Structures are given as C-alpha cells and as structure tokens.
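Exercise 3.2. Students should predict the tertiary structure of the chain below and write it as structure tokens, then compare their answer with the key that follows.

Predict this chain's 3D structure.
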Amino acid sequence: MNSMITMGDVPGGGPAQMDLGELLATRLLVQGNSGSGKSHLLRRLLEQSARMVQQAIIDPEGDFVSLAEKFGHLVIEAADHSEMALHAAGERMRVHRASVVLNLEGLDADQQMRWAAAFMGGMFEVPRQHWYPVLVVVDEAQLFAPAAAGEVSDEARRQSLGAMTNLMCRGRKRGLAGIIATQRLAKLAKNVAAEASNFLMGRTFLDIDMARAADLLGMERRQAESFRDLERGTFVALGPALCRRPSVVRIGVVETDSRSAGPVLAPFAPPEAPVHDLILAPVAAQDMPARARRPAPVPQPDLLSQLAAHGEAQMNRAEPEDELETPTSQAEREAGMAAILRDMLGDEEAAFRPAPVLYQDFLVRCRIAGLGRNALDMRRFGRLLATARSGVSRDLSESSDWQQAESLAAGLPEDLQGVFLFLARAAIEQQPCPADADIARVYGTASNGRARRLLGWLEDRNLIVLRSDGVGRRVLSVIGAGWETLPGVADA
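Answer key:
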C-alpha cells in the first residue's frame, strides 16, 4: 500500500509529499499565528489521508464537522454527552474503527479540557487487540496542554495535560499518532511539544516563538526572522515524514469548507431606516428577559455559636442506626473489625493509602456490617491498623510476648508502630529478617532507602540491633526482649 500523500508543493521544486506510515511513528507539530493557515493545513492532511487511516479530531471550534459530509466522519457533539459517555465513545470508536470529530464548541474552557481528556483516555485505554493506527488531530493544542496554569481548575488542567502527554509520549505503541497544532509554542507544554519529530512552522511574529521554532528546525538564530515573511498557507517543513532539511511548503487546496471560516470583506451598505429607531426602539415588557431578584440576606449567627449549637444537637440526637443495631459482645465486635481490616489490607493499593483515607473506608464497612457508625475512634484505629499491618496471627496476638511488643511500640510515633510490630513479629516467630521492600510496603512507601532509614532510626533509639552473619545476611534483634530473627537478605 502506498502511504505517500501530497500536502502541496515546494516552490520551484515539485510536489511536497508526506510519508503517512512514518508520520504514524513520529508525530507532527504545527505552529503558526492566527490566520497563518493551520486549520487549512490540518484539513488538507485529513482529506488526503481520510481513506487510508482512521482519524480522531479534537475540534474546539467546530471547524472540521464538514468532513462528515464527504468522508463519513461521525460528529460527536460533546455538549450533549457526559464525561463518562465520551470516555466510552473513545473506546468504541477504536473497537469499531470509525473516524470521529469531537466537536467541543459551546463548552467553557474547563469542560473542554475535561471532555477531551475523557475521550482521549478512552482511546488510550482500549484493549491491545484494538490498537489499530489512528491519526489523533488536536487543534489549538495550547488549550489542552497549557504551559502554565490559567483560569481553569487545577483538576481539569491535570486531566487534560495528562491525556495529551500520554498521546504524545506513550501513544505510539498503542497506534495513536498525535498531530497537534498551536498558535504559540510558548503557550504549549514543553513535554508535549518535545515528543514530535515532524514540524510545520508557519508565520509568527513574536521573538520567543520565532527563536523556539528555529531551534526545533535546527536553523540559526539569525534565520528566525524569516518566519515573519511567510505567506498564509506556507510553512517550513522538517522531519522524517516530510524532508530531511528545512524546506518551504505551500499547502494545496482542500475539498471541504470550514463551518467557521474567517470574515470576508464585502461592500458596506448603511441601513435604510433611521439608526436611532433601529437601535433604541423600546422593548416590549414580554420580550424583556426575566431577572431573578436576589432575596435580602438573612443575618447569620457567628461561627462559634453555630458550632456550639450543632454540637448540642448532635449530643441530644439519637442515632437511628445505633438503635437498630443488634447487641453483640465486645469480643465479637473486635473480631468483626479485625476481619474487616484484614480484608481492606488484602488490597495491594491499601499499603500506599494514608491512614485517614483507610479510616473513612473502615467506618463505612463497619456500618455495612452492622457494627455502628462510630465503631472506633481514629487513635484506636491507628493501633488496630498497626497490628494488622504486622501480620500477627490470632494465637500470637494473645501471647505475653505480643503484649510486650505492643507496649514497646506504644512509645513510638503512630506511623512507625506498624513497622516495629512487623519486625517484632518476625523476631518472635524466628522468621528471616524482612527485606527492605517488605518493610517499605508496611510503612506505605515504595522506597527501599526509606526502609533503611527507618531501621537506622529504630536502632538509634536502642529498640533494635542489626548485625550481619558470615555471608552478609542481616539479623535483627529486639533489645531487652531477647527476640531475634533468622538471617535474611536485605535486598531480596
């Protein structure tokens, strides 16, 4: 299959061709000021490749919906769908190999970023058997991968920037070829722009953008001013899919029209009727928009008074759930809570979740199990969590040795109690000394260096002693208790 498409012509040098197969592997960056012909270039590229490869177009202004009439693209009006629905649409368009135009027109900037991120996330997360090649064209890419924070929320910017980074950095292996167009390189996140290997640089006037464009094309700084002299629809091209040396390319004609083409100069005809009557005619009462009147603010008591009243109400109010609870013995309650906590810690991600988050999850599970709304306070939960993370068995937890270990752990910071009990259990049961990775997981980190620093801290506090046997394996002893582990490999 011939993968060459014609983008236009090189003035005085014949047709300008692009290797579509190479483009899928190396991505493309288009830059030019407003009116330089970026959208015309993207339309030419899309039209020439429409029948050769699947396409997905992130369209913030509705410029490319006209492709549907000639080439059969599915136009998705993002304003009519939820974020979740667009994530599913991103997956399904790859499964069914349909070319799609995601029209984000009518949404505010925050929604555009969220909805585009959801759609690109769906394309990115599709199963491996559907990793067919797709050209992903993002017009006005500086809106979705801004170099600096703007007026949008941090969450929307994080989602959108993450989706754009995945597209440009990790999309190649999944068949996604990113083609991004921006008005200004200075406004585009550098980690997104840096992943492109093909460039089409159009007319630009700001010094910072000209200098950056010259750097990307390998041109000398004194040649940067040539970007000011480029005509509309003319670009300087470079890249493995285009040409090996910077070359001027004039983009060819297109078959479809933009729905939002720029203004066209036409003869100006003044209105025939008096302008005063046209502009300042009285508006009928029924045509005036209704304005909701804001009610007068009701004076509120000060914050301390509100907190005091709320506290009294909470103390006087009986919890209906507590009244419906079936009476259970303290031993049964503790066994139920221990079982819930063990089930929570069975999840691999639980080791890296902070204690307050685990506490909220624990309370919800206790309510589901009928153990009450406030089964444990945070302090008691911390002790129970430390015991559970140590991996102690039920029989050992009832022994005098374990009671002594808990007494020693009580004097430590809460985040270190679980680590000490984990080491004490290994010593009591005479198991091999735990590896650094196991100690780090109990502490809630993936850093083996942090685990070694924790061991050093405990040794400085005269709680443990570390030594090596004859072959360099680590042995841990608990000072005062006489417990000692078997030799173990630290970096196992």
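Discussion points: The chain has three domains: 4-251, 328-376, 390-492. The CA atoms of residues 117 and 163 lie 5 Å apart.
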